[in-house]
Structure to design on (351 residues):
């Protein structure tokens, strides 16, 4: 009798999980339809609406290249899209994108006013409502050494925004310093391993507070140079970054960090993708103002990280108290290692 009840419970639990998965799949499809698919050219819309809803739920990027096959990427790799909406590695019966479709898509995404998005376009991307970032390639129009515009658009990379509330729960115990402070933290990972998603959830957790850890929340300032963390649309964050969070969108870190300190008196500043010349001085100004910093950088591990001269100076200066290394071994956001930045001792290592 006990065995029968257990099997029944497992069956009911399995059905509940399946229903929840179907519900999330349907919700994801509706979100993408409203915020992305409806802005594509008519031909592209018809193809993407043929793609299985469960498959669409896993998609991270949609690639449009003039006179080349439509492609998608998820955690399993990149795929060609067939004329029937199937994802395949084969090279037959594929849907080929025409440049006119790309130009029409840009027109729809810019709400029939490409000129209004000129400032974003010259930086190589635009951001849609919902935080989806659209990378753009084509012919660069120069004004001296600066890009004035991008014309003859021939490629688009539609990076689908995906929030995962709670994904930073495992790392927060290493970042929080008691109930009222945080450690200066650097998140290290290769591309597409979830560092920006993780950074966003860290900002939200610090801003909202974490009752389960007795952490009440701090004022957070996000300097979002690439519009990826908060994903602002017309100045308003599209992602959940916390109730005590202020965002400076599209501003270079070298300028934005000082601006945020002067204007909004944050207790913690969150920014992304350090490693360029001049970042050390900008970060030192933050620390000298008594503000904590949480940021990220490309890298595969601490040893590889040390080989880069512009980063080595940050390590030698003991700017960071915590190094958190991510990978995609068990999916994006896999926590590989946590290192104490002052002693360089390993605090956690996967496996």
């Amino acid at each position: 009798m006990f065995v029968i009840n257990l099997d029944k419970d497992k069956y009911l639990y399995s059905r509940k999980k399946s229903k929840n998965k179907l519900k999330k799949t349907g919700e994801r499809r509706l979100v993408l339809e409203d915020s992305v698919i409806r802005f594509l050219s008519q031909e592209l819309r018809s193809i993407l609406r043929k793609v299985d809803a469960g498959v669409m739920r896993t998609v991270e990027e949609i690639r449009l290249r003039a006179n080349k096959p439509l492609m998608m990427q998820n955690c399993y790799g990149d795929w060609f899209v067939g004329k029937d909406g199937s994802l395949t590695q084969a090279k037959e019966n594929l849907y080929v994108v025409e440049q006119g479709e790309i130009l029409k898509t840009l027109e729809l995404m810019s709400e029939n006013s490409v000129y209004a998005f000129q400032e974003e376009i010259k930086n190589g991307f635009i951001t849609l409502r919902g935080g989806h970032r659209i990378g753009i390639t084509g012919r660069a129009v120069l004004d001296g050494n600066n890009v004035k515009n991008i014309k003859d658009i021939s490629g688009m990379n539609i990076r689908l925004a995906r929030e995962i509330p709670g994904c930073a729960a495992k790392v927060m115990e290493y970042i929080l310093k008691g109930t009222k402070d945080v450690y200066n933290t650097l998140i290290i990972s290769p591309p597409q391993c979830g560092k920006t998603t993780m950074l966003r959830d860290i900002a939200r957790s610090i801003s909202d507070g974490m009752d389960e850890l007795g952490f009440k929340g701090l004022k957070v300032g996000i300097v979002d140079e690439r519009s990826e963390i908060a994903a602002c649309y017309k100045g308003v964050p599209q992602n959940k970054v916390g109730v005590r969070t202020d965002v400076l969108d599209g501003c270079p870190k070298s300028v934005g960090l000082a601006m945020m300190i002067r204007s909004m008196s944050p207790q913690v500043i969150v920014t992304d993708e350090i490693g360029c010349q001049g970042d050390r001085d900008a970060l030192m100004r933050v620390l000298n103002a008594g503000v904590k910093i949480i940021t990220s950088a490309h890298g595969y591990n601490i040893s590889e990280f040390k080989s880069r001269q512009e980063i080595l100076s940050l390590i030698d200066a003991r700017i960071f108290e915590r190094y958190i290394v991510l990978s995609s071994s068990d999916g994006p956001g896999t926590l590989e290692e946590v290192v104490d930045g002052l002693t360089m001792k390993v605090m956690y290592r996967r496996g």
Summary: Residues 2-35 form the longest helix (34 residues). The two ends are 39 Å apart (CA to CA). Residues 1-19 have pLDDT under 50 and may be disordered.
